[in-house]
């Protein structure tokens, strides 16, 4: 028996994680219903999802898209409430009618609603890693105080969550080993990276993901953000969180124990496994992911990350060691750099250069309140924007 129906608010419904979540939800109508869906501005895509999943509320975070959403819902005869603007995301994240919140917005834009879900004691399926990097301490505190359960759905953190002891999360743990695919440019040298295009950077060998995280995977910043995410979620110091490159992306991460045991979670590279785990925990449900065929995989490879060619991973460790607002600077500068790269305004190697320049120019400040963090985020974005203009003028 599945128990009472759970109501899910899916923030970032039109993205890659959003799609995978809805695929799992649709397989289990006896367990889950959709309470709210959000998109930034893609009203047509959101309306199509509303027709199919009939949520109580639909949110467009871009207020300019509100009339199209309202009229589209009315034209389809749907009773779904139309909401708009960033505050509406916080509202549905905190709504007592929703017991589960899937945080699948990309970037710092997801921070406030992720915090709202934590404060309101939800089951929080956390994909939006940038909010953990920006506001890790605040988020963990909000979850403790609000009584929220954070279920990591980033595949590495989901793997670690599954491999940690259930009682005291860290007893006997020596190290966390995060696996990295190495991205589409693994094995290349710096010179070969100077001219790579956004299309090449977004063509990930194993995962089908949104553009920002695809570029982050190509620079290894994704793994850097994940190291910071792991530090907050699992409470281990940076020197006990290591990264190993595993190009097949089948071992999603590992936990090394003091007795020499190393536990790993394996599976085909498909986010529906982690999402099904988070949705149904502590039960297990079908996710639609094919069973792993080890004989046809034949082998697993491992290598150390190349920090000289991909300096973003080292920059993330540096920001984590510096503490305070440094991770927020790293993440904000990276968001600006990735967006400039995707728009053809910055070369691929300009991404780590820009992040480093922003870290160099910004002394680590406090990160004790949301206001501090929003200020840091805005200042780092301004600085990054100015530096890009200067780099283009050179
Ligand atoms: P995506 O680009 O495919 O989708 C992003 C979603 O966020 C869309 O629904 C979009 O409408 C919404 N959005 C964009 N800008 C917004 C804004 N300013 N305000 C509100 N909403 C906005 O991204 P994705 O690949 O699904 O990734 C989402 C998050 O999950 C990211 O933080 C990413 O790092 C994380 N994640 C993704 C994967 C994956 O396989 N895609 C794996 C692990 C973690
Ligand atoms: Mg990941």
UniProtKB/TrEMBL annotation:
<feature type="binding site">
    <location>
        <position position="226"/>
    </location>
    <ligand>
        <name>Mn(2+)</name>
    </ligand>
</feature>
<dbReference type="GO" id="GO:0070402">
    <property type="term" value="F:NADPH binding"/>
</dbReference>
<feature type="binding site">
    <location>
        <position position="14"/>
    </location>
    <ligand>
        <name>NADPH</name>
    </ligand>
</feature>
<dbReference type="Pfam" id="PF08436">
    <property type="entry name" value="DXP_redisom_C"/>
</dbReference>
<feature type="binding site">
    <location>
        <position position="222"/>
    </location>
    <ligand>
        <name>1-deoxy-D-xylulose 5-phosphate</name>
    </ligand>
</feature>
<dbReference type="InterPro" id="IPR013512">
    <property type="entry name" value="DXP_reductoisomerase_N"/>
</dbReference>
<feature type="binding site">
    <location>
        <position position="15"/>
    </location>
    <ligand>
        <name>NADPH</name>
    </ligand>
</feature>
<feature type="domain" description="1-deoxy-D-xylulose 5-phosphate reductoisomerase N-terminal">
    <location>
        <begin position="8"/>
        <end position="136"/>
    </location>
</feature>
<dbReference type="InterPro" id="IPR036169">
    <property type="entry name" value="DXPR_C_sf"/>
</dbReference>
<keyword id="KW-0464">Manganese</keyword>
<protein>
    <recommendedName>
        <fullName>1-deoxy-D-xylulose 5-phosphate reductoisomerase</fullName>
        <ecNumber>1.1.1.267</ecNumber>
    </recommendedName>
</protein>
<feature type="binding site">
    <location>
        <position position="155"/>
    </location>
    <ligand>
        <name>1-deoxy-D-xylulose 5-phosphate</name>
    </ligand>
</feature>
<feature type="binding site">
    <location>
        <position position="154"/>
    </location>
    <ligand>
        <name>Mn(2+)</name>
    </ligand>
</feature>
<keyword id="KW-0560">Oxidoreductase</keyword>
<dbReference type="GO" id="GO:0030145">
    <property type="term" value="F:manganese ion binding"/>
</dbReference>
<feature type="binding site">
    <location>
        <position position="156"/>
    </location>
    <ligand>
        <name>Mn(2+)</name>
    </ligand>
</feature>
<keyword id="KW-0414">Isoprene biosynthesis</keyword>
<comment type="function">
    <text>Catalyzes the NADPH-dependent rearrangement and reduction of 1-deoxy-D-xylulose-5-phosphate (DXP) to 2-C-methyl-D-erythritol 4-phosphate (MEP).</text>
</comment>
<keyword id="KW-0521">NADP</keyword>
<feature type="binding site">
    <location>
        <position position="223"/>
    </location>
    <ligand>
        <name>1-deoxy-D-xylulose 5-phosphate</name>
    </ligand>
</feature>
<feature type="binding site">
    <location>
        <position position="128"/>
    </location>
    <ligand>
        <name>NADPH</name>
    </ligand>
</feature>
<feature type="binding site">
    <location>
        <position position="204"/>
    </location>
    <ligand>
        <name>1-deoxy-D-xylulose 5-phosphate</name>
    </ligand>
</feature>
<dbReference type="Pfam" id="PF02670">
    <property type="entry name" value="DXP_reductoisom"/>
</dbReference>
<dbReference type="GO" id="GO:0030604">
    <property type="term" value="F:1-deoxy-D-xylulose-5-phosphate reductoisomerase activity"/>
</dbReference>
<dbReference type="Pfam" id="PF13288">
    <property type="entry name" value="DXPR_C"/>
</dbReference>
<keyword id="KW-0479">Metal-binding</keyword>
<comment type="similarity">
    <text>Belongs to the DXR family.</text>
</comment>
<feature type="binding site">
    <location>
        <position position="181"/>
    </location>
    <ligand>
        <name>1-deoxy-D-xylulose 5-phosphate</name>
    </ligand>
</feature>
<feature type="binding site">
    <location>
        <position position="17"/>
    </location>
    <ligand>
        <name>NADPH</name>
    </ligand>
</feature>
<dbReference type="InterPro" id="IPR026877">
    <property type="entry name" value="DXPR_C"/>
</dbReference>
<dbReference type="GO" id="GO:0051484">
    <property type="term" value="P:isopentenyl diphosphate biosynthetic process, methylerythritol 4-phosphate pathway involved in terpenoid biosynthetic process"/>
</dbReference>
<feature type="binding site">
    <location>
        <position position="210"/>
    </location>
    <ligand>
        <name>NADPH</name>
    </ligand>
</feature>
<feature type="binding site">
    <location>
        <position position="130"/>
    </location>
    <ligand>
        <name>NADPH</name>
    </ligand>
</feature>
<keyword id="KW-0460">Magnesium</keyword>
<feature type="binding site">
    <location>
        <position position="156"/>
    </location>
    <ligand>
        <name>1-deoxy-D-xylulose 5-phosphate</name>
    </ligand>
</feature>
<dbReference type="InterPro" id="IPR013644">
    <property type="entry name" value="DXP_reductoisomerase_C"/>
</dbReference>
<feature type="binding site">
    <location>
        <position position="129"/>
    </location>
    <ligand>
        <name>1-deoxy-D-xylulose 5-phosphate</name>
    </ligand>
</feature>
<feature type="binding site">
    <location>
        <position position="226"/>
    </location>
    <ligand>
        <name>1-deoxy-D-xylulose 5-phosphate</name>
    </ligand>
</feature>
<dbReference type="InterPro" id="IPR003821">
    <property type="entry name" value="DXP_reductoisomerase"/>
</dbReference>
<feature type="domain" description="DXP reductoisomerase C-terminal">
    <location>
        <begin position="266"/>
        <end position="382"/>
    </location>
</feature>
<feature type="binding site">
    <location>
        <position position="217"/>
    </location>
    <ligand>
        <name>1-deoxy-D-xylulose 5-phosphate</name>
    </ligand>
</feature>
<feature type="domain" description="1-deoxy-D-xylulose 5-phosphate reductoisomerase C-terminal">
    <location>
        <begin position="150"/>
        <end position="234"/>
    </location>
</feature>
